[in-house]
Specification:
Elements lengths: L2 H15 L1 H9 L8 H31 L4 H25 L12 H5 L6 H33 L1 H30 L2 H11 L2 H15 L3 H29 L3 H22 L1
Helix pairs in contact: 1-6, 1-7, 1-9, 2-7, 2-8, 3-4, 3-7, 3-10, 3-11, 4-10, 6-7, 6-8, 6-9, 6-10, 7-8, 10-11
């Protein structure tokens, strides 16, 4: 492994993870938690992830697997790994309690009217559960970002940017209830920032995989699984949230814009 590439992959993963802190900062200065800009941005992130998954990451995974297996068997393993990635992130969604697993910016009025006697306590609990849930979700994203960058820097950078955009509203989801519960902007921002650090754990696991199993087989399986994770995140998290906080067409324009920008970027970098 090239030490410079490893360091850059870790830095890129850290950048993507700590974007939750950007969300924490934004939440301190906004009066409303929804906007058309957010809708377009989330759609853009989904477009980047979906385009990269089907046009770059899956073919790249197949390329590595074909160096290890005959073409028909490599294709089967590639597809199986893709759905394995979907299954892993879906299981994480399944076992993290839904109340503590928000991918949406919290609505303070809804929280207040939810029947909880101590509003501050409810808000603080919501913020902390959000931080824990987001930390759990960020682990496979960190693995995906690190592994993709190690395989192909331009793909890894594209994924990092998409995940960074995706992490901004997650940071808001953590910071808003904590800020309203405690009155401390610093505490809301700090916990939002810390929730993104778990992506580095995923990067460390990726580094261990590269150190222990530096084979085309491992790389191919992880790349295809990464594509599955990205597609699931796009359809389960990004697009529903984008539509909730904006008009349907704004979300779709964001998706198409993300695909177009990614396509042009890959052509220019290629």
């Amino acid at each position: 492994m090239d030490p410079t590439t490893v360091v850059l992959a870790l830095v890129v993963t850290l950048f993507a993870g700590l974007s939750t802190g950007i969300g924490g900062l934004i939440s301190m200065f906004q009066k409303r938690s929804s906007s058309h800009f957010l809708s377009v941005s989330l759609g853009f992130s989904a477009g980047v992830m979906v385009y990269l998954s089907f046009m770059e990451i899956l073919p790249e995974g197949l390329h590595y697997l074909q160096a290890y297996y005959p073409a028909p068997k490599a294709a089967i393993i590639n597809i199986a790994s893709f759905f394995m990635g979907i299954a892993v992130i879906a299981l994480i969604d399944r076992f993290v309690p839904s109340r503590g697993n928000p991918h949406e910016i919290p609505d303070l009025q809804t929280l207040t009217e939810s029947g909880c006697g101590d509003t501050d306590h409810c808000l603080l609990r919501t913020g902390m559960l959000s931080a824990i849930a987001i930390a759990i979700h960020n682990f496979p994203e960190g693995l995906a970002t690190f592994t993709s960058y190690m395989a192909d820097a331009k793909i890894g950078l594209g994924i990092a940017i998409a995940i960074a955009i995706h992490n901004i509203p997650e940071g808001i989801a953590v910071a808003v209830p904590i800020y309203f519960a405690t009155g401390s902007r610093r505490k809301g921002f700090s916990i939002a920032l810390l929730s993104g650090f778990s992506e580095m754990l995923g990067a460390v696991i990726g580094l261990l995989l590269f150190s222990l199993f530096p084979t085309d087989l491992m790389l191919g399986v992880v790349m295809a699984s990464t594509a599955g994770v990205m597609v699931y995140i796009s359809f389960d998290e990004l697009l529903p949230t984008a539509e909730k906080y904006g008009e349907h067409h704004l979300a779709i324009y964001g998706v198409l814009g993300g695909m177009g920008v990614m396509a042009i970027s890959l052509l220019l970098l290629g």
